[in-house]
Amino acid sequence: MLLPNKSIPSDQAMIAVGAQILAQLEQPGTVSAVWQRLIEWRSEKNMPSAIPFWWFALSLDMLYSVGVICIQNGELKREIRVSETQ
After folding, report:
1. Rounded CA gap, 42 and 32, in Å?
2. Element at 32 (helix H, strand E)
């Protein structure tokens, strides 16, 4: 599910979809705007397999849980965290 395997093509693995979503977040956007950008981007790249919205939503959950995206004022944004060193 997270990584490609025999039943999940590499362009549909959650880690790949997460990277594709991050590419769409160069500019913040609403969930529906980012979804639309992703669909258009995948079409431009001639990716053979479609992804359903629920897979997109799971990928957003994964990105949020690892701390690379956040939502502010109704828009998804890349989250930049600076680690403190001691």
Report:
1. 15
2. helix 31-44
